[in-house]
Amino acid sequence: MPLTDSAIKTAKPKEKPYKLSDAQGLYLEVTPNGSKLWRLKYRIAGKEKKLALGVYPTVTLAQARKRRETAREQLAEGIDPGEQKKVAKQAHRLTGLTFETLAREWFTYNSPRWAQSTARKAKLYLENDLIPGIGSRPVKTITRPELVELVRKVEARGSLNAAGKVRQWLHQIFRFGLASGVVDSNPATDLSVLAAPAKAVRRHPHITFAELPELLSKIDSTNINILTRCAIRLLVLTAVRPGELRAAQWTEFDLDGDTWTIPAARMKARRQHLVPLPHQAVKILRQLQEITGKYPLLFPGQQKADRPMSENTINKALRLMGYAGRQTGHGFRHLLSTELNERKYDKDLIERQLAHGDENETRDTYNHATYLPQREIMMQEWADSIDALCAGANVVSIKRKA
């Protein structure tokens, strides 16, 4: 017999789900937790299927019967009502899908493949520029002129580098949407055509090798934290990126083997980097170990030991020492590169020490040589030459012969 409203209302839950049948495949499933779910059993292409029609009492008996008739009409036309429902649901999702939702899906998918610094920067651009600008807009309705306007607002702040990153992230997000089938085109293509003219390239300032003794002397005479002193000296002796040093963990170091292994996840190129440690660097690290060895990080933050020192700490210390506009933490890499190239060291050794890829893309793909033994010699000679210079030796005498 067909169902009645009174029968539905008085139906009580049991230990197991049970059915109250209506007609033509429609039935109500009563679950142990008391939920009452409308279901339609039907057959298509010889297969039996079930279609969810809603929850009682939100969907009344009369509405459930109406949905059953709609489904039967679709079946009469050879349409699978279950598949049709999925298509309609997906279409509704795509119509209302916002840029913020797509951007966060893109970030969640890609961030595990990035270096930590890349993921952090991408998150900043999302939160500070992209989502506040167009996050609430349905992604399928966003046009290229809108994106041009968004980028121009960033350029208006004088942040041309940030504007370039914003163009890059927009292009990647819409490519992700295109591959996912949620957009039909990529409105972020060719945004660079309207980019503001680039400013002159600003190099990281650095002093000359001859000026290094004075800087090293000021490290001890200026009122800065001992951890900062150690960090600056280690940058001079290793030429790693400041971010790689700040986030260094004690487990990465083999002080007996004079080697520091930076994992790929922390490297800009996502490639493990071996750093030979001259004896002078090992001495500093052993002294530092007595101070921070109980923490995972070499340079724990003053407020939170589980986070590294601020990225501004080293440059702020250099400014206090009187080197504002003359030397930055990153600039020590330029100093080493300039000096060792002048001394005619092999370019491959210098570039590998700096963790740079090869300009030849094919060679970079296949050449994974670390040149560690040769770099150990080079970096020990570098450290010794600094000691000799500080001791007053003739600069010419410590330059490597060609």
The third-level CATH topology of the largest domain is hpI Integrase, Chain A
In which range does the helix fraction lie? Answer: 40-55%
How would you state the average pLDDT, rounded?
87
Please identify which CATH superfamily of the largest domain we are dealing with.
Intergrase catalytic core
Envelope shape: elongated
Strand content: 5-15%
Secondary-structure-derived class: alpha+beta
Total DSSP E strands: 7
Strand arrangement in the largest pleated sheet: 1-2-3-4
State the major sheet.
Answer: 4 strands, antiparallel
Q: Given this structure, which CATH class of the largest domain is correct?
A: Mainly Alpha
Radius of gyration from the CA trace?
32 Å
Q: Tell me the CATH architecture of the largest domain.
A: Orthogonal Bundle
Number of helices: 16
GO molecular function, one term: DNA binding
InterPro entries: CB (IPR044068), DNA_brk_join_enz (IPR011010), Integrase-like_cat_sf (IPR013762), Integrase_catalytic (IPR002104), Integrase_DNA-bd_sf (IPR038488), Integrase_DNA_bind_dom (IPR025166), Integrase_recombinase_N (IPR010998), Phage_int_M (IPR053876)
Domain Tyr recombinase: 202-379
Keywords: DNA integration, DNA recombination, DNA-binding
